Amino acid sequence: MFDPRPLVDIATAIGREAGALVQRMRASAVVSFDTKSTSTDVVTEADRASEQLVRTRLSELRPGEPVLGEEEGGTVVEGLTWVVDPIDGTVNYLYGIPWYSVSIAAQLDGESVAGAVVEPATGRLWTAARGYGAFLDGSPLHVSATTDLSLSLLGYGFAYRPERRQRQADAWAAMSTRVRDLRRAGAASLDLCSVAAGRLDAYAEHALGRWDWAAGGLIAAEAGAVVRLPGSSPELGEDATFAAAPGIADAMYSALVESGFGKV
Ligand code: LIP
User: Which of 33, 144, 237, 244 is packed most tightly, with the most Cβ within 10 A?
Assistant: First the structure.
């Protein structure tokens, strides 16, 4: 039987190396950056350097296996593909807010089987192997036991395109009276890890890249969350990512649909 755990070890080792690099670069006075899809969608020199390091190390440790990365692209193929977000939460990184990650996942035929999310600012390590559970620094993770939507804490995010943000804001405003509160932390991989740890009861966002959710989505699922990846929840939108504690998953899904989240 296929055991994905050795792939977690590789993702962890390389993620830690890339994390150390981006932290050294963060310590420099100026972090230079360019913009991508919009003026607010930034890529720093550290993003690029991190992805180059990960690609180099994967070519050494796993020669010939394809890589899909946020900055240099690639494709998911049959068999094993490595999916890399060199810095998830780039805007946080740019502003010096210590809530960003290096996220590395191994996918088999497009399904995540191993993942590591490294927090360079704190050294925390989130991991999961399919069928073997999810862990924070080696301790098992379990989602929250909440069953009351009105007492749930919902994580969310915005797309970069301004014209979509207003529609998203309207949906989040409608949700604000349905839940305890909302949190917008700015790093999808860590939002998904937060659901795994019970620090969020649910998380939803549109327009994520595969690299944003590939590791965090597996960690949340292995911790017991209901996870719906892009393409699996048409009522929330073809590019929606959803994760929730099982006790509120159905109610949260319905509330998001009723709030217009699926039409933003
Ligand atoms: C970010 C995501 C975040 C989302 C941002 C951005 P990046 O990824 O982690 O959840 O709201 O728009 O996509 O660009 O920092 O890797």
Answer: 244
Q: How far, in Å, CA of 128 to CA of 138, rounded?
A: 10
Q: Which helix (H) or strand (E) holds 181?
A: strand 181-183
Whose C-alpha lies nearest to ligand 1, atom 16? 88
- Domains by residue range for the chain, with CATH: 5-140 (3.30.540.10), 149-263 (3.40.190.80)
Cα(84) to centroid(ligand 1), Å: 13
Burial class (CB in 10 A: 0-12, 13-18, 19+), 182: middle
Please, what is the angle between helix 210-222 and helix 188-197, to 10°? 0
Residue type, 55: R
The answer to whether 191 is annotated as binding is no
Read off the pTM: 0.96
